[in-house]
Amino acid sequence: MPGVLTIDAATVCSLVSWRDAVTELRSALSDGLDPAGQPARTAVPTARGELLLMPGEHGGMAGVKVLSVAPGNDALGHPRIQATYILMDSETLTPRAVLDGAALTTLRTPALSAVAVDELAAPDAHRLVVFGAGPQAEGHVHALRAVRTIDDIRIVSRSPESATALVERLGEHGIPAAVGVAGDVSRADIIATATSAGSPLFDGAMVRDDAMVVAVGSHHPERRELDPVLMRRAMVVIEDVPTALREAGDVVLAIASGALRADRLVPLGDLIRANGPRGHRPRRAGPVVFKSVGQGWQDLVVADAVYRAFRRGSGNGNGGDGE
After folding, report:
1. Within its chain, how far is the Cα of 109 from the centroid?
2. In what helix (H) or strand (E) does residue 103 lie, and over which residues does it extend?
3. What are 192-233's pLDDT values in tens digits?
């Protein structure tokens, strides 16, 4: 498309750091963006998977992420999830940039978790257990290290080879980590779950009262990574209530079992606006859970940040080919 920037995955990641993404997402929420007022995700089944459309509008820009999810691709050597993002200005809905959507997802999901952790985790939290060994698991290590001094990292995966490979990749970045087991949650300050699991990954009774759990594994109401024991004990923070009740299996199934009530759900944006810029952390009697399903506004906020950074770097306000 003439005049439309094309921004590939490597450029997306080079233009916006983990800290930048955290700042942009937090600023959007603190400035009044209401996730509940944003368009919902649309899912369309296909013969081999599903297509997802994730639109959003904020700050004079609009956009949509188009994703394909093909579970069978793992066996074929192709990515399971592929995505493209189209960024437009709100006034004319003219496309301004096409970005690698998978890179945006890899960036914005851990960054939003880091926003929640920075708001709610103990300031001295430094022990992290990550369930999963894929891009989201790896991204969470980097994003959470942008907001806390994390020096004890355990990677837990159903595939020991994948866990070892992630430990080695982190080591190449100077980040010490080790392969862990589910029981490591008993000593963790922060637990991140980024898996495709459909049933709980660990015993929620093992999580310390002062710990925080972020769960990002699924947006399907019948799948969960966290058990009802943890959800009963925890302060449960979500992106917005209607979306959580529609898509967050950890929430939906906990409510169905009687372990959680919908009126206990706390939107992250409400906390940020109530606590103010210094992030006053409320006292609590048990752990905190942040359950995220991923929303189109998050892609939009980060895509806009990438677009602005690209234009600053190119010095060309009229756009062009940004391969």
Report:
1. 2
2. helix 101-120
3. 999 988 999 999 999 999 999 999 998 889 999 999 999 999
Question: Each residue of 299-323: pLDDT tens digit?
Answer: 999 999 999 999 998 744 333 333 2
* CA separation for the pair 153, 257 (Å, rounded): 32
Residue 315: CB atoms within 10 A of its CB come to 6
Count of Cβ atoms closer than 10 Å to residue 25 Cβ: 25
Is pTM beyond 0.90? Reply is: yes
**CB distance 147 to 140 below 8 Å:** no
- Residue 116, SS3? helix
Q: Domains plus CATH for the chain?
A: 5-104+297-314 (3.30.1780.10), 111-294 (3.40.50.720)
| 3-class SS shares of the chain: helix, strand, coil, % to 5 | 40, 20, 35
Angle between helices 101-120 and 268-275 (to 10 degrees): 50
* Residue 95 φ then ψ, to 5°: -60, 130
Angle at 139 between CA 191 and CA 239, to 5 degrees: 65
